[in-house]
């Protein structure tokens, strides 16, 4: 549903010369997220790449790049393009760890889990295990994911597989 509105907005934005490229990049990213949500990963990748082209020209948007790297890593992983999934997921983790005060531990745990999956696919089991342990550590730091100990215990058990 949102995808329809975002595509309509894109049509309007591309006809308006007053819209700046950063705003257009944000819209491309939202479209990419929506395509990813409905598992149309090739379309998602196309919009994420357009976003990346725009965001890289703005040096002050590191937080926007961080989220984009997370999304690119996930899409490449879903497409079984492990080389690019590794590149973007590792870039995301680097950005996330640099933002000491605002670390999103939930996304960080997902990123480590993705790296674990990729290394497991490549039979790099010791590296995979280290990433799964990092994912578990991140999950343990999440205070806002669940309000009950039981929910939290279920999450932790997921990462102990």
UniProtKB/TrEMBL annotation:
Keywords: Repeat, TPR repeat. PROSITE patterns: TPR. TPR repeats lie at residues 25-58, 109-142. The keyword Repeat applies. SUPFAM superfamilies: TPR-like. The keyword Repeat applies. This is Tetratricopeptide repeat protein. The lineage of its organism: Eukaryota, Metazoa, Spiralia, Gnathifera, Rotifera.
